[in-house]
Amino acid sequence: MTNAFKPTRRHVLMGATALAAGMRFVRTSFAADKVFKLGALGIMSGPYAGWGGVMSQTAQTLAAIYNEKGGVKIGEDEYKIEVVSVDDKMDPKTAITGAERLIQQEGIRYILGPNVDTTAVSIKPVLEANKAVNVPYAFSKELYIPPASNSILGMVASYQVAPFIYEYLRDKKGVKKVSFLAANAADALNQRAQGVRIATDLGLTVIASGDTYEPGTTDFFPIITKVLADKPDLIVLSGVSPSDVGPLVKSARELGYTGFLSTETGQDPKALYQVAGDAANGFIAAGGASTEEIRSQFMVDFMARYKAMWGEWNDVAALFVYAPEIILQTIARTGPAAINDVGVFKVALENFEGKNPFVKDPMPLKYVGRKDFGQPRQISVPIVVQTVEKGTYKPLFVASLAS
Amino acid sequence: MCRRCLVDICTQGRLMAQVLINGLVVGTTYALVALGLAIVFGIMRLVNFAHGQIYVVGGFVVYYAMTAGGLAFPVALAIAIVATAMVGAALQIAFFGPVMARVKREEATMLLAMGLALFLEQTCYLLFGELQRGAPPIASGVFKVAGAFLPAGRAAVMGIATVLISAVIVFINGTRSGRALRAVAQDREAAQLQGVSLVRMNAFGFALGAALAGAAGGLLVTVVGIQAGGGAAVSVKAFIMIMLGGGGVVSGAILGGILLGFAESVGYMLLPGSITYLVIFAGMILFLMIRPYGLVGRPWG
């Protein structure tokens, strides 16, 4: 395996920015007269940096593409897009401080993130008090069900994609017995509880649902040994972090497991394959919209730009790109009033329908979630269930969220 | 005895064999991580919070040397050991040495170590990105030992870690430089009066400790991969190990590492996952109340 070193913007800037390495506050700025600011608040350090860091980089990449063409047109004017990123370190207190800083100091009204329930729920009062909107990647329904109205789910929730995966494996692959494994962290445990309920409702036998591991675990051999003792047909890795998934899958295969492994969270197949090797083949995960079969030319260009800016493509970026795109499209449609008045923006959610530039087949970009949350507070990201094959994803099936 | 009972006994026997092998494999690599921290602590009385980040650097050096450089694993590991030793020596000479010369309070070096840990972590993000990386395994195939699985890559890592630990023990006990390190660890003033250069020994000790962390990272990147933010968890576990074994004592660090490896392995098999580390921490608190200087440490230091 070779991975030739190519200097990228990251490497060129490295020396200068290393001096500011302790800083958790990063921004891209422009000397334009009209600027539209987007906040990015998420986990940008530690084992979960594969979520918040990529979320921030994705927004900056999309902003660069827009800015190159003059910016986003809102009303009569072109606005350059500025992304201000704050690392919440997966800590609710830091998330609150970060949200206050973005809203009160930077004057930002639209924030991407946070990435997990604990931080997303913690900033909910800050958003409501300061009249700001965010797009969390967290599944707690209290964020989206009335009276809550300031958060829009930016992805497909685990409880929305899990039925598709379990049903597919039950009907097409003969899976009967399921074990769940989760990190001992709030989000992962919540996703596990929901997964257990869904599996049971689908008539699958849940043979183990109490196995957990500590966040930061590096060697999963002892943990997987216990899970395999029950001989499951399927092991669900609930809410697994990008840094844990490779070692977990590899350990299971090294211990002789030949059944199915799946997760409902987005993962990068190349990174997974690099850590787990051929053991990663067949791993099932929910994905974004970058698989070759469905992606548009715009997505191909976006991927190339992302790679040029950050060194290499990360498949999770294909999911994160939906939120900044739909926010920009919505504000462009509603006009300048929505820039500082999220009330105008929220009214527009009901009937907004834009163009989804990321997939080649016609598929509207809109706000859904009426079925699950009682109001349109979710982005219409396609449900793409994929399997890893030699470091790339092959889609098993594509579905749509209910409106 | 019925056939089913026999099958159950065989299954349980195989599981216990797996638990023991898991404990041995995990414990050996833990011991290598703890050994480096113990050496730095023993010589300089410094709690190096950046130890885990140096482990991460070692892992990434091996990863890039093998994937981008196309080098064989032994060469890549040697480069990682030298590179992390240089990082360790540089940290000592540029930061810890000057601070320790001027300030006697231990908090100063602890805060400095924490700051450097954050600095190294953020630098790793800038250099290596946020993705989990994995170098190709150094051996392929799986051995079956008493019905338990032992992947060849893990067996090789365990073997190399054992060789490295043995080499360090021989070096410390059997060479002039090693004895000088021990002398500094036991009594700095007396060692200085005997002509031992504290400046050189501090830099050498820090380099040796960092090289061991780098070696551990370089070995484990072929088994479990590496991620820029993974250092803090490694440091925490290394602290547990040297607290169990006895701060600054080489044999204590090795014992602590192996004990933690077995505690994890047995705990995850017999207890609900979330309880395992609760029991380990509770046990450690009780143990330290009875023996605050660790298993093989001494009350007088």
- Biggest chain-to-chain interface with counts: A-B, 60 and 56 residues
Gap from first CA to last CA of chain A: 44 Å
How is the quaternary structure best described?
heterodimer
- Estimate the strand proportion of chain A: 15-25%
Structural category of chain B is mainly alpha
The average pLDDT score of chain B comes to 89
**What is the C-alpha radius of gyration of chain A, as a whole number of Å?**
21 Å
Q: Main β-sheet of chain A, in a few words?
A: 7 strands, mixed
Distance between the termini of chain B: 56 Å
Strand content of chain B: under 5%
Q: Count the DSSP helices of chain A.
A: 16
Strand order of the largest sheet of chain A: 8-7-9-10-11-15-16
Low-pLDDT ranges of chain B: none
Strand order, biggest sheet of chain B?
Answer: 1-2
Helix content of chain A: 40-55%
Order of helices and strands of chain B: HHHHEEHHHHHHH
- Which spans of chain A have pLDDT < 50 for at least 5 consecutive residues? 1-7, 11-26
Q: How many individual β-strands of chain B?
A: 2
